[in-house]
Structure formats: C-alpha cells, structure tokens
Specification:
This protein is mostly beta strands. It has two helices and 25 strands. The protein starts with a strand and ends with a helix. It binds zinc ion.
C-alpha cells in the first residue's frame, strides 16, 4: 500500500485501524527506506482488517489523508500458468491454433496434435465448414494430461488442401505434465521418514521449503475438501478428471479455493507451513487412486511424480 503526500520522510509508523477501537489495530513501524519525502510504501501486514489507515510521526502539513483500505482475505489470485513459456497440461493457458477455410472441406480433414517425440497423433479436431476456425487445447487427452514434451498443432494432409494455418498460431510448443507444487526453493524428500510408508504409515511425501512459500495446484481438478484437522493442519484435496485425487497438508491458512470449484494447474492454493502435526515447514502431498481421497481410493507414492515435476519447472 502506498500513501502519497509531502514531507513524509519523518513518519514513524502506519496503523491499520480496522474497525472502531484499538483491539484490531495492526501497526507497521517504518524503516528509513519505507518513508520517502513524497510517498510511504508498506506491505499490508497479516491480520490487518479493512478500515482507516493512520500515519504517525512528524509529517508535513500537505499530506493527502490516506483513504480507508479494503483488505480481502486469502491469497492474491496469482496465476503461475499464464506466466509460463511452456504449456502446462490443465493450466489456464491453452495452446490456440487458428486456420482459415477457403475451399470445400474434405471428409477426414482435421486439426491434429502431434507429439514431436514419437511423431504420433494424440488428438484431432474436425474442421469448421467455412471461414475462420480455431482449436484450443489444454494439453489433455481424455481424462489424462498428454505426455510431457514437444508438440505440434497442424492441419492434416486432407485439411491442408482447403485450409491455411493462420500466423500467430501455437503450432509448436512444449507441454509439461504439471507444475511443481512448491513455487520457490525447496528440498525433495530425502529421508525414509519423509517418504511414502516411512514411520507410522506415512501416506504422502514431505518436501521442505521456507515457511510461506506459495503452493500451486500441480494439475487441474475440482476441490473436494478444504478443512483443518489435528494432524493434517490446513489441508486441501483436489479431485482430478480421472477420479484420482491429491492432497496438500500443513498449509499456513485455509486455502481460498472453495469446495466444488475448479482449479487449473498452476493456480495458487496456499502456502507452505507447519500447521497440524509437522516439524518444520513442508508440503505433505498425497496421491490417491480413483475414486479418490477417503472415498474408496488408495494412497500411493507421490515422490516419483514430484521428481518428474521438479525437472520440468
Ligand atoms: Zn508427511
């Protein structure tokens, strides 16, 4: 948050007043760098409530009175998927391929997604009958993300007689299986206790990171559970289109993602912490077979997936 005015360099603190009374006040002491002559910039502290903002200290007379702030609970709607150069299966960014049909479309004319690794066609789409057509691909084949690697979207031979690829199409791209869930420096499971099956029937794998490091959905799905429980702490469970599910535990706060809503690969779900029964801030991630987490599925080792994702991004 930035407050502008003049002669602000001697300001000492900013108080987020919240509602009437001082019980919910949150004070931020200003460092020399935060208070400049014409602007004060502070990070809105955790726990601050919506309401007036007060600046204390020796300040100039021409200060613009700071406006009350509205503080919205939860994480910023950061979207790791859109900033990525790669296409992430189930991510928000989809590969878009456009073309123009000028003649009559032959039977069997298609747009095809071809793996650059195997040369195989993994998906096809019929052409529009005339004019402009386009295909958006989220990287899925049926309920599963296509294998990681290079892909080409193109018109097949029958289609290329009557249609032309439009400039700017995503004709070549790299497809990744998903996001590594910890969006910052991290250390993969390294001891038996941190791995699947280690100590007291451990159902997930533990990956350590600085407390507060953001967590992203590794792939898309629908939020199945979002709760707090003694051992798991703040946790979230997402069910994938294929019926499998994954769970993140020990998060700092409850996830802002609501039960029943869709999440895309790379969507922020929470932050690494040590809520519940945890020693040290880490992500405990569980993978469950269909029909999912405590819905009849069985847990299986999440470490191989974590290792693959770690190499990708
Ligand atoms: Zn664990």
């Amino acid at each position: 948050m930035t407050v502008r005015g003049s002669e602000l360099q001697s300001a000492q603190q900013v108080t987020f007043v919240g509602s009437t009374g001082s019980r919910d006040n949150v004070v931020v002491k200003l460092s020399a760098r935060a208070a400049q002559p014409t602007a004060i910039t502070v990070t809105v502290p955790r726990g601050a409530k919506s309401g007036a903002v007060r600046i204390s200290g020796t300040i100039g007379s021409a200060v613009t009175a700071p406006q009350p702030v509205k503080i919205v609970a939860g994480l910023p709607a950061t979207d790791d998927a859109s900033g990525s150069k790669k296409l992430i299966a189930g991510g928000k960014r989809e590969a878009r391929f456009s073309y123009h049909v000028s003649g009559s479309v032959a039977a069997g004319a298609r747009v095809e997604a071809v793996s650059g690794v195997t040369g195989k066609v993994v998906r096809t789409w019929p052409l529009v009958k005339s004019g402009e057509g386009s295909v958006n691909w989220d990287g899925f084949v049926g309920n599963q993300p296509a294998k990681s690697g290079a892909y080409v979207l193109r018109l097949n031979e029958l289609a290329s007689n009557s249609a032309k690829t439009k400039v700017g199409s995503d004709s070549q791209f790299e497809l990744a299986e998903g996001f590594f869930p910890i969006r910052g420096a991290h250390k993969l499971s390294s001891t038996a206790m941190q791995m699947f099956g280690g100590g007291r029937g451990h159902q997930g794998s533990d990956h350590f990171a600085a407390c507060g490091t953001p967590l992203a959905a590794w792939t898309s799905g629908v939020v199945q559970f979002n709760a707090n429980q003694g051992a798991a702490g703040n946790y979230i469970v997402v069910q994938r289109a294929n019926g499998e599910s994954y769970a993140y535990m020990h998060m700092r706060e409850r996830s802002p993602a609501k039960v029943g809503t869709k999440v895309f690969a790379g969507q922020r779900l929470g932050r690494v912490s040590d809520s519940g029964r945890a020693s040290g801030c880490h992500l405990h991630i569980e993978l469950w077979t269909a029909p999912g987490w405590y819905k009849g599925g069985k847990p299986y080792d999440s470490l191989p997936l974590m290792k693959r994702l770690d190499k990708l991004n």
